[in-house]
Amino acid sequence: MAVVVNPESMNAMRQTPLAPSLSHPVTATSLAGDVETAAAELCAGLRVCDPGLVLIFAAARHALDGLGAALRRQLPEGCIIMGCSTAGELWRDGYRKDSAVAVGFPKSGFRTAALKLRGLSRLCVSDWILQLRALHDRFRPAANKHLIALLLVDGLCTREEMLSVAIDAALPDVPVFGGSTGFGRDHRHGDVLLDGDTDTDSAVFCLIESDLVIHPIVIDHFRSLIGDMVVTAARPEPRILDEINAEPAAEEYARLVGVDRSRLSTAVFAQHPLIVQINGRNYVRAIRAQTPDGGLVLMSAVETGTVLQLGLAEDLAGGFERALGALPQRPVLTLSFDCILRRIAVERAGVSDSLQRSFDRYNIAGFNTYGEQHGGMHVNQTFIGLAFLPEKAEDGYLR
After folding, report:
1. The pLDDT of residue 5
2. Which one of 121-125, 166-170, 314-318 scores highest in mean pLDDT?
3. How far is CA 390 from CA 20, 387, 398, in A?
4. Which letter does DSSP use for residue 109 in this model?
């Protein structure tokens, strides 16, 4: 596995190339426009590890079912192919669009099992829990291995909160991380793929067991600017915030931000999200749009009576580098789920180049989401990363 190490490094720390290993995950990418060429380019990079699981994150221009079928023809029999459409892709050279990014997990270093949960809008919570427990029971995790789970869920199903809670109830001892799938920046239902079967209003869930240490990273980049905003009217299921402080939500939000309501935009929403505090920790509730009657459409649900704070984005690149720089070793892979509104804030702040250097340094591969899941919660405008660390310190670098 070839690794490019950027010579610039915080604190002039010593870096050494990662040793290639057939038990490490590998990554591949393609900018090809047609699925057959894209699949061939991806498989050229994936086959070297004899994968048992391949994750595929594909731009909206790719027909995910066609790309999945092309990969199926070229990958080893029995390899699980799991993926989704995206709001953008993440790679070592930075944020991308109109590309496909793949991650292969070798059979020699990983054990995996996956399922699809269909018809999320029907809220069959008991069925979800039974299916998840059955998968876990069949899997029989080893006590001496590291176990995580990945979740990819239709980003406009509006069921991520309930699904996250159900998964946490079914498998309370399994750390679960994931992202809500996108379809470009059009806010359309995102596709999820499992072994040639593509759906919306669905989620795919995968257990991953490995000898490698898997270090979770959760980053947001906001400080509270204004507190004591009270939700006085809301509709949680469609995620619409109607009133803040007994005023029309969009009007009151615009007043607090300091702009005219007519100037509210995706860029303003990305710079100033809403923050809710739960058990002493801040969670972002991102704004997607405003309604014609003065409400705000959110990307996570809030209820009447919730106390909110107004957030301010700050130090996007520096905060990211500090968080990943705290890792004890350079990861062989940082599997990444990064909210599309974080990307918009990065682009608006003009720090894409600085962030790209961190993407390269920490072997980033993943996609831009409509929301993120971790710790039994659905959140927004957050970077969720899973850093897969090499077995030996000399394979990476130490602080």
Report:
1. 26
2. 166-170
3. 10, 10, 12
4. T
In the chain, the amino acid numbered 289 is: A
Residue closest to 30 by CA, chosen among 57, 3, 63: 57
* Mean pLDDT of all residues belonging to the chain: 90
Placement of tokens 């029309």 in the chain:
248
149 HSE (CA, 13 A, CB side): 30
Strand (E) or helix (H) holding 283: strand 281-285
Instruction: Tell me the mean pLDDT in the region 16-37.
Output: 81
- Inter-residue contact 133 to 171 (CB < 8 Å): yes
**C-alpha R_g of the chain:** 21
- Nearest 5°: the CA angle 4, 6, 12 is 140
Greatest Cα-to-Cα distance within the chain, rounded to the nearest angstrom: 60
Distance CA 83, CA 97 (A): 16
In angstroms, the CA 174 to CA 167 distance is 9
Residue 89, phi then psi, degrees to nearest 5? -120, 155
**214-270 tens-digit pLDDT:** 999 999 888 887 667 999 999 998 999 999 999 999 999 999 999 999 999 999 999
**Helix, strand, coil percent values for the chain (each to nearest 5):** 25, 35, 35
Q: What is the pLDDT of residue 240?
A: 97
How far is the C-alpha of 232 from the C-alpha of 370, rounded, in Å? 26
Q: Is residue 115 classed as helix, strand or coil in its secondary structure? A: strand
| C-alpha separations of 14 from 17, 330, 395, 396 in Å | 10, 11, 12, 10
- For residue 389, what pLDDT is reported? 96
Counted residue by residue, the chain has a size of 399
| 281-285 vs 274-278, strand pairing mode | antiparallel
